[in-house]
Automatic annotation (TrEMBL):
Residue span(s) of domain Major facilitator superfamily (MFS) profile: 15-396
Membrane protein topology class: Multi-pass membrane protein
Record carries keyword Transmembrane: yes
Record key words, sorted: Membrane, Transmembrane, Transmembrane helix
Protein name per its UniProtKB record: MFS transporter
Gene Ontology CC terms, in alphabetical order: plasma membrane
PANTHER family per UniProt: CARBOXYLIC ACID TRANSPORTER PROTEIN HOMOLOG (PTHR23508:SF10)
Annotated SUPFAM superfamilies: MFS general substrate transporter (SSF103473)
Domain of life: Bacteria
Membrane-crossing segments per the record: 12-36, 56-76, 83-103, 109-131, 143-162, 168-186, 216-239, 259-279, 286-306, 312-337, 349-367, 373-392
Location in or out of the cell: Membrane
Organism: Chitinophaga lutea
Primary location class: membrane
GO molecular function terms attached to this record: carboxylic acid transmembrane transporter activity
Length: 407
């Protein structure tokens, strides 16, 4: 067992802390839009059906930015270095955050959400890549758990900031936090493993090279194991008021509260999955455990005949806890690929999983008129669980894998 003092000293190194607080600010902004969407659009003069229609447009613009940004930052992270992404991404989404606080029209808002999405796409992948490369393999799971946990804390913080301040001020706070963190990042050094790879005659950041043979299979496996997480977030929690109505609860469900509680549960899930992974020295076993836990909670959410809204909120917390293998999922993506492609994979994979919400939601809406809200969600959820388990079955164990290699 590693010495506790030396482990803590390693985890409190500046690169780890900078990556962790960067993801906190990242998730603050990503979640903040979901919280302030309605009041911000109302202040721009929209009401009734326009709130849903224009809100969906803004969400799609943000998602498009995340998907495009994931590829851009991933390639840059391998070609130019992990720090280039940590600097560039936080600068872009911090300035976009501040600009969001000044918008006066929906088209302006849409452009700013797209730009913010591009910036937000790079933070998690670059941070996890840097952490896995600077920490010893015996404790790097603790490091990535710290990053993911602080990220979820950022989402919870957004809920309370939006409750305390007017929506424009909430955006300014997020932008200001990002710019402050940018100053701290001036002191961070590049990964030694990456610097070593720069001296080798090997192509770095070739995104298209992922689409060949067994490498493509590994890449798709990484994406597949994360699908249940964003099925829960993108459908069960996002549309929680609709599910509450279908369940005939005794009071309406407040979407913002359901999302905040789910993310609060995910904090504890990320901590638990990270610690368990270190204890049993396996990523696969703990991911398998949490996927089964997700299946259990999805069934409880959709099939248990409860009528109290407070019980519903408790189930949201437990769903969030079952979602708490996000850190392990991104860590495995970083560990499965060599240094010359690691940032590309670790940055694109989580954003493609987020993007998978689009086809999952389309399937849910297609089935809804025929099977109803609860049964159609159950079918989509079962599909994501089945795909994730099949992908995990063939996945290599990465707990003890050396990071100093190339593809």
């Amino acid at each position: 067992m590693p010495d506790n003092n030396s482990t803590m000293k390693e985890l409190l190194r500046l690169p780890v802390l900078v990556a962790a607080f960067g993801y906190l600010v990242d998730m603050y902004d990503l979640f903040l839009f979901s919280v302030v969407r309605v009041p911000s659009l109302q202040s721009l003069g929209l009401k009734d059906d326009a709130l849903l229609h224009e809100g969906a447009l803004l969400l799609n613009m943000q998602m498009a930015g995340l998907l495009i940004g994931g590829i851009i930052w991933g390639v840059l992270g391998d070609k130019k270095g992990r720090l280039s992404v940590l600097f560039g991404s936080i600068l872009i989404y911090s300035l976009a955050n501040i600009a969001n606080g000044f918008v006066q029209t929906v088209p302006q808002y849409a452009v700013m959400r797209f730009i913010a999405g591009i910036g937000l796409a790079g933070e998690l992948g670059a941070g996890v890549t840097l952490v896995t490369e600077v920490l010893p393999k015996r404790i790097r799971g603790y490091g990535t758990t710290l990053v993911a946990t602080l990220g979820v804390v950022g989402a919870i913080m957004a809920y309370f900031m939006a409750d305390l301040f007017q929506w424009r001020i909430s955006y300014f706070i997020g932008g200001g936090l990002g710019l402050l963190l940018l100053v701290l990042r001036m002191k961070v050094m590049e990964s030694g493993i990456y610097e070593k790879t720069k001296l080798q005659q090997v192509r770095r950041g070739n995104f298209l090279s992922l689409f060949s043979g067994r490498r493509l299979f590994r890449y798709l496996q990484c994406i597949a194991i994360g699908l249940p997480i964003w099925f829960v977030v993108g459908i069960l929690i996002t549309f929680s008021p609709e599910f509450g109505k279908a369940m005939q609860l005794n009071a309406p469900v407040v979407a913002g509260k359901a999302v905040m509680l789910a993310f609060a549960g995910q904090v504890f899930g990320d901590i638990a999955s990270g610690l368990l992974s270190q204890w049993v020295q396996s990523r696969k076993k703990i991911i398998f455990l949490f996927i089964l836990l997700s299946l259990t909670m999805i069934l409880i959410y959709l099939l248990l005949p409860f009528r109290e809204v407070q019980t519903f909120y408790i189930v949201c917390v437990l769903l969030g806890f079952a979602n708490g293998y996000w850190a392990l999922f991104v860590t495995v993506a970083a560990e499965l690929f060599g240094t010359n492609l690691r940032a590309t994979v670790a940055t694109t994979v989580p954003n493609f999983v987020r993007g998978a919400v689009i086809p999952l939601t389309m399937l849910f809406l297609y089935l809804k008129p025929h099977w109803g809200v609860l049964h159609s969600a159950g079918a989509v959820g079962a599909l994501t669980i089945a795909i994730a388990l099949l992908a995990l079955r063939r996945l290599d164990e990465t707990f003890s894998k050396d990071m100093d290699y190339t593809e």
